[in-house]
Amino acid sequence: MSASPRIRRLDERLGLSVLRAGLSPVTLVTYARDHVAVRTPSRPDFHFGNTLDLTGVPEPDQLAGFLDRYEQTIGQLGAGHVQLRWETPLDAGAPPAAPTPDTEVVGRARELGLEVSPLTVLLLDQLVPPAGGAAVELAPVPAPDATAGGAVDRRWHATTVLYRYLAGDTPDDWRGNDDGFVAWSVEQQRTLASSGRCQVWVALRHGMPVARLGLLHDRQGLAVVEDVVVHPAHRRRGIASALTHRAVAHHLEVDPSARVGLAADPGGGADRLYRRLGFRPHATIWTAFAAAPAASPAAS
Prior knowledge:
With 300 residues, this protein is an alpha+beta fold. It has helices at residues 15-20, 63-73, 103-111, 151-161, 171-174, 179-194, 239-254, 269-276, and strands spanning 28-31, 35-39, 51-54, 82-89, 115-124, 137-140, 198-205, 208-217, 222-230, 259-264, 279-290. The protein is built from eight helices and eleven strands. A hairpin with a 2-residue loop joins β7 and β8 (208-217). The protein starts with 14 loop residues before the first helix and ends in a 10-residue tail after the last strand.
């Protein structure tokens, strides 16, 4: 395989498809003319698994109608939150910075009780090896087997522990973690790994896991890198770059024509890191979210 395989740019409106490529096997996705309904009846608290993805940028006066659609298709299944998402294109040369939102759309969303935030989806253009070498061993975690408590199970458990650092670096930050949801999420990854749709990778120092990520795909040539986590004591050593590069390179060895994407906060450290590895901006995903049911459109 070439050290720098070139990957074609995705078509329009596939930024949201990147985010959906790694959905759990119990999540239902249905397509309509102007939206995609994503539902996870068994986990109504799963934000990314209970969302209405719009196929176009909404006009301010359309938001109330989409809230009605959300309630009819997702809210009735027990979701306590409201989430609408849509995307706007980004030029491949766009700087790593927060984009300017549509003030009228944001204003109307706030009237309806929704807060709007951006997320950048980047797509691999040409894979670039990271500068320098991280002093770690990079290894795939084997798919689960039938041996409870065996070596493979222990490796999965060790990588799962790293999830706590998504919430913060100290025990005080972890107190609000929903351990039950984390356990459920890992079980979905294990199921996807057993069916060949997920590969978890780990970085080891002195035999101990210090970083992990998951690379998931939809069997149709679209893959996404998720949950890149590095232990706080081992950050700024190039581990995230090395781990991401190795996982993506391995996936391209298996599927050279794959399209690979990931998401990052605009202008953040991860955004800049992924650009150095050859990922380029593709779209801004705008998420309109309310932790509790939004205001009734009729009352607004």
